[in-house]
Amino acid sequence: MSIMDMKIKLAFRELGKSVIEVNPKLNDEVVDKNSQILCFGVKDTNQIPDELIARLRNHPDFVWLTIDKSSNKGRAIDTDLINPLTYRIMTGSTSGGPVNILKGLNDFAIGTDGGGSVLAPAMSCQLPSIIGAGMGLFVKHKKISTDQMAFTGSVGVIAKHLSILKKVMENLLDQKLSSAPRKIIRVAIPKKGTVITPDGYDMHDKVMNHLASIDCEQYHFEEVDMTGIGNRKNGIGLIDSCFSKDDFDLIVTCEGPVDVYGYGETIPEYFGKVGQDITKNHGKFLIRSANMSKTTAITIPTNILASGLVVVARAGIEHCEMAFDLAKKLDESIKLPEVWRRYFVEQEQKFTGLSFETS
Asked: Which among 25, 81, 197, 291 would be 20 to 30 A from 314, CA to CA?
């Protein structure tokens, strides 16, 4: 069985679960593609601009395989799906996309992000991701969030590898992303003692541990009080202050574990202490606010379950390039467990299901 045949068979097996539909025109679309095809899924929403999907379909290396399940009414968790990595309820609303990557169907997924709906699901599944609000990649219509905030969602990408993420983003932007200029880049990082993650560690220490593993000559890091950034309004205020008032180029945080110790979903918070207790310790910080502040944001998985570094960049092509450069350095310095690579990235555990043709 070829790799493509295996992906198709897996996709049909996930129908009614993480897959809504398998592309009925797949055989026709594969004909003119290059030999090394990357399969992708698109979130089950009509809010992604048609021209962006067309751009992906026309790329010689990409083929649209699935429509991916999304959470009901855009909620931040999807009670219909289980996260294959954490065994918790899947993070939403771009929920099916990362699940289908982990299950071996797709190499990348296209989703939409209003208050973390691409960045959080990706982080919960140990996958890199990006949202394009800072590059003008917006959805068709505005919405009101569950905490009564008006926003316009952005289009985002989740992928197996950071290199795929960049390749897809260049296609969506119809523009090559070159290396950032050699200048000193000002980066805001959490001040020690201001943010504690759900696993009990100081976010400052986590960030510094990763920065110590890369060449930081090009960067000037400054500590900023990030108290309360788990609250979306506080997060938006922090991002806006860093970029508009203090003239930072980038912000770096280390977030998660996402939806492991608690679920980051707003609706139960309106139901007293019980609802508040089950929704705290969700591990979502600036990933809840990055889109609403119209930034470019990239997540890079770390070796802690459902956790990752977040690089938030102010709007514009130059800062998007800065974010990718720093993300690449951080990604190259992080070694994920070997079992992760074998089971979920390289898919060495091949599909061995039974069929009537072979029985």
From this structure: 197
